[in-house]
Amino acid sequence: MTVTTTAAGHHSASLDLGVIGNCSIAALIDRRARIVWGCFPRFDRDPVFCSLINNEADDGDEALEKGFFGIELVGMTRCEQSYLDNTAILSSVLSDDQGNAIEILDFAPRFVRYERFFRPPQLVRRVRRVSGRPRIRVLLKPCLGIGEEPDEITRGSNHVRFVGADQTIRLTTNAPLSYVVEGTPFAVDHNYSFFIGSDEALRAEIETTSREFLDKTTDYWRDWVRSLSIPFEYQTAVIRAAITLKLCSFEETGAIVAALTTSIPEAPGTQRNWDYRYCWLRDAYFVVHALNRLGTTRTMEDYLGFITNIVDSFSESGAEHLPPLYPITRGGTLTEFEASHLTGYRGHRPVRFGNGAAGQIQNDGYGAVVLAATHSFFDRRLIQPGKDTLFGQLERMGELALGVFDKPDAGPWELREKEAVHAFSSVMCWAACDRLARIAGALGRADRKDYWKSEAKRLRGVISERIWNEHKGHFVSTFDGEDLDATLLLLAELGFVKADDARFVATVEAIGRDLKRGDLLLRYATQDDFGYMHTGFLICAFWYVDALNAIGRGDEAKELFERILQRRNSFGLLSEDADLKTGELWGNFPQTYSMVGMINCAMRLSRDWEEAF
Fold this sequence. Notes:
The protein is of the alpha+beta class. The protein is built from 15 helices and 31 strands. The strands form 10 sheets. It has a 9-stranded antiparallel sheet with strand order 1-7-8-9-12-18-16-15-14, covered by helices on one side. Strands 2-3-4-5 form a 4-stranded antiparallel sheet, with no helix packed on it. Helix 4 packs parallel to helix 6, helix 5 crosses helix 8 and helix 12 (538-550) packs antiparallel against helix 13 (554-565).
């Protein structure tokens, strides 16, 4: 897929972005080949490139803009961009009307070196002449701290250091350094390479190292893609989604973040601006499911390791409530604060760092952990299958679930000023008991199997009665409530009811009638802390597709899925939300939940390979 930009001059921020990374860091690149977002030395640290959320320069003067890395072709009128096939390497070809053109290749090095993965906190930009005598201007304006200019800039023979109070960033290049620092245009008479990252010297020849890193990173990604299990249909979409999911994984600990950004609003003017650079337990079951279907065993195993480490720490702590989200290293705090000096995405404040939802009571987490960890007991590919010790720790999760299944919480939508007994949270508590019974059976623990099976039956009876509204004729989102929410589409997926249960079918039909807006779905149609929903939550649309397919409306599901795919940006990526009318993407980006939903739907809806030819 090649995309073309022809406009020049001032550009508003957009989520028509490509992503590069190496499972340590990641960066977002706009349609002018500028790096506009990137945190160092890992996903959840301060953004060195932050113009995506601080893009409204004073008086519209782009000269005052900061927090980006641009390589501009003088007189550029056209930018064509595409990924190198089956890689996370982005090509941008910039051209003018005089026959001058350059190509920029952007990537983060990732390959095996010395029998371990080499994935430094570093980005590489390679520039080569394509035609004519092109001239470029390098604009490197990093921020240190949160949106702050460097305290000091120092230079060496081939590098420049941007020094801040807590971090120093180094650029190493074979381009004329004075031109780079001063933003002076110069001719591209041979290949230039730019290494940007931590303050470490590059102890090798610049161009040779750049070429070696490119070749090895290309080989790595193509080998990785070859190992994927993909459907016959939707191959391009699934491959790009799989690579993006991989880029959202922090390999050192196995964590997978919900998104790479903070404070992209769910809808304009709503203040629904949150920091998603963390790992939500709620995502665990769906992420593991997608990774398992893709056959990415190592990534799945690493992620399960992150989850089971949470189980270990929680068991040792003796805490009574499981936090709903964690930092990618499980350490530190997630205290939420606003950076009032940042202007926000398209001027939409506030810009938040940290996430206050970490302190909420969300009772679905126990089920999410147990469901994810269940793979450890049944998947024989995994190097460290589940043991009795882990089962004992998961049983404590189950006991806590028994204690809260009928208690109010903030729910799956993390309401900040309201609590209720949410159907989804209660069903996930049931799921914890149900899966513990299955695990006990696999371990030959008949007594524990009987116990958890009995408890699961008891919970199902209570929950079924309390979330079924006879007057409405469908399941509802809270105990004894009247309203719908999109998580009810998951009741069959989780095994709480069968897909052909008349109550579930009626609920799917009611959601299609009351929550569906065009091809998208609202999370719910009621008012919350911030008013009513103004955009469609993309994962909900994928849940609806799955539910339609499950109740026998497969052709309709497939047609809807293919229309939703058209909401992807030019690079095949999705954010959290989309405008109900225009389809414009909103919300943090790229959204793991959305990419996982796309993968799972594609796997279910595609023709089998055996049927294809």
